[in-house]
């Protein structure tokens, strides 16, 4: 049995929404993704909630080019890494054994790739677990890439949203960036199953050989970009997962999932919700019954 992300929606649901009024739901999706990138809303992944909240100066794009000493006329591909300790089995099939193997093999490949483009490597906001593993994205970058003019590590002092202003394409194993950036017209190449796979707006190689072949020809992908229909599909998908399928649960609440969680506060709030619970008002239960009956 395979575990799939709770954000994975059926093509039946997607087609029903998309075919009903793609212009409307694409617009709603773009509003939601824009609010996320501008810091007006928080990321659905608690480990990524602070990704776009840092307000830096308005010259970040120029600052980034100056830090890297890059020519603005050159194309840029962003590589979005993952939490190397967690999340290796959340999306079904994958081309690489785990996130670390994907990162290492990808970095080794682009290091020796003779293409006239630049690469920026972005670590995951939740790149934690350092006390239990011997590496992280930055260490892998140092060990494999080191000092190379056209491959740089994204600096902490620059807001992550800057990437959508400079990137022409992105690579991710199975991360949410593969959905988020196509909403802005930026093609994404993924390396396995993901909750947004199969909706027509991502490049989805079926083998490692195909994956590296696509990267080798990435300039063609950058030049082609995404069609309006593909962008609409990405934005509609984001609308569905960020709003349409979200249902409040009368027994659940937002809490800190880290080790800093206060158990006393957690159980106090849980008991309070239990005392107020009304079975007949449970919208989640009603919706779940509809799904089970079908």
Task: Pick out its properties.
single chain, 294 residues, alpha/beta, 6-stranded parallel beta sheet, 11 helices, 42% helix, 7% strand, globular
Task: Describe the overall structure.
With 294 residues, the chain is α/β, with parallel strands linked by helices. The chain has helices at residues 11-37, 60-68, 99-111, 137-144, 163-166, 177-180, 208-216, 218-224, 228-244, 263-276, 283-293, and strands at 76-80, 118-122, 151-153, 169-172, 188-190, 202-203. The longest helix is centred in the first third of the chain and has 27 residues, at 11-37. The radius of gyration is 20 Å and the shape is globular. The mean pLDDT is 87.
Question: How do the helices and strands line up, and which of them pair or pack?
Answer:
Layout: H1 11-37, H2 60-68, E1 76-80, H3 99-111, E2 118-122, H4 137-144, E3 151-153, H5 163-166, E4 169-172, H6 177-180, E5 188-190, E6 202-203, H7 208-216, H8 218-224, H9 228-244, H10 263-276, H11 283-293
Parallel strand pairs: 1-2, 1-4, 2-3, 4-5, 5-6
Helix content: 40-55%
Low-confidence stretches: none
Radius of gyration equals 20 Å
The count of DSSP E runs of length 2 or more, i.e. the number of strands, is 6
- Morphology call: globular
Q: How much β-strand is present in the residues?
A: 5-15%
Count of helical regions: 11
N→C terminal distance = 22 Å
The profile of the biggest β sheet is: 6 strands, parallel
Mean pLDDT: 87
Element order, helices and strands? HHEHEHEHEHEEHHHHH
Structural class: alpha/beta
């Amino acid at each position: 049995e395979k575990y799939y992300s709770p954000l994975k929606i059926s093509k039946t649901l997607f087609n029903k929404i998309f075919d009903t009024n793609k212009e409307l739901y694409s617009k709603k999706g773009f509003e939601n993704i824009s609010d996320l990138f501008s810091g007006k809303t928080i990321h659905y992944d608690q480990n990524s909630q602070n990704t776009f909240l840092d307000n830096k100066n308005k010259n970040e794009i120029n600052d980034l080019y100056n830090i890297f000493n890059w020519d603005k006329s050159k194309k840029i591909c962003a590589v979005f890494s993952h939490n190397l300790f967690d999340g290796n089995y959340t999306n079904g099939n994958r081309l690489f054994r785990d996130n670390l193997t994907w990162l290492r093999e990808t970095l080794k490949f682009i290091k020796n790739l003779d293409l006239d483009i630049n690469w920026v490597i972005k670590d995951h906001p939740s790149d934690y677990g350092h006390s239990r593993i011997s590496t992280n994205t930055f260490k892998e970058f140092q060990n494999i890439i080191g000092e190379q003019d056209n491959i740089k590590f994204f600096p902490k002092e620059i807001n992550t949203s800057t990437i959508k202003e400079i990137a022409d394409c992105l690579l991710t194993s199975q991360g949410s960036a593969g959905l988020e950036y196509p909403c802005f017209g930026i093609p994404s190449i993924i390396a396995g199953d993901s909750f947004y796979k199969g909706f027509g707006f991502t490049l989805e190689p079926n083998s490692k050989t195909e994956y590296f072949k696509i990267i080798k020809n990435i300039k063609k992908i950058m030049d082609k970009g995404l069609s309006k229909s593909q962008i609409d599909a990405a934005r509609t998908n984001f609308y569905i997962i960020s709003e349409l399928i979200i249902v409040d649960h009368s027994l659940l609440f937002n809490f800190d999932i880290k080790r800093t969680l206060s158990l006393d506060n957690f159980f106090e709030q849980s008991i309070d919700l239990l005392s107020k619970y009304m079975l007949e008002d449970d919208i989640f239960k009603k919706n779940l019954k509809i799904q089970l009956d079908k």
